[in-house]
Amino acid sequence: GGFAFGAPPDSASSAGSLFSVPPAFGAASAGTGAGDAEGDNADAAGGDPEAECQAQFKPVVELEEVAVTTGEEHEECLFEMKSKLYRFEPESNEWKERGIGPVKFLKHKETGQVRLLHRNDKTLKIRANHIVMPGTNLMEHAGTDNSWVWSTWDFADEEQRYEMFAIKFGNEERAQQFHSKHAEAMNINASLGVGEETEETEEEAAKKEEKAKDDAAADELASKLESTEVKEEEKKEEEEEETS
């Protein structure tokens, strides 16, 4: 559903639902004494059903163990904290919850680059996945001190999309820890030249385009000069013929 930052939690309702749940341990159930008495009688009679049953069953289908990969095997986890992630949907002009789960900063062991990864802790689906780009601005959302908003190119949906995210933590302290690690990740990537490649590529493309225009202009000028020289040569030959 929609996400409204700054709204105070309904502590009364959540507390009421919490205390209405029966405890999982420590509550004695009715009839326990009767069950114990029956068990004592069975033991006295010498009956041990588990000892007497010697039947063995083999599984109909034997399944081989399959190694499950997460894509994080070659990365070092620099930071992990439970959070709630939202994504802004321009079509409906509202925030949509992406899920509750751990947000991580993962540093690749070979390239050294750091990315942000957020998974839904129930479905394990990736909800945010992007390189922490130098210059990314984490903005505080109005009225809150435990959430951040930022925009970046993201690959969570297996295609590059420019997204606006909001992330919410349990308290201000955790939000500040995330902010500090995000800044650290930006500095690491900046030292590796992350973000400069795109700018260099665009600059190179502009230079190539400019050079192509210059080459075309030079070719055109050379063609015109060649044409002029040919005409002057023909005119000179005509004058010489008239003189002779």
TrEMBL record:
UniProt keywords (A-Z) are:
mRNA transport, Nuclear pore complex, Nucleus, Protein transport, Translocation, Transport
Q: Where is this region: Disordered?
A: 29-50, 190-244
- The RanBD1 domain extends over 56-191
GO cellular component annotations, sorted alphabetically? Answer: cytoplasm; nuclear pore
Q: Which domain of life is it from?
A: Eukaryota
Q: Which Pfam families does the record match to this protein?
A: Ran_BP1 (PF00638)
Its recorded name reads: RanBD1 domain-containing protein
Organism of this sequence? Pycnococcus provasolii
Query: What broad taxonomic lineage does this protein's source fall under?
Result: Eukaryota, Viridiplantae, Chlorophyta, Pseudoscourfieldiophyceae, Pseudoscourfieldiales
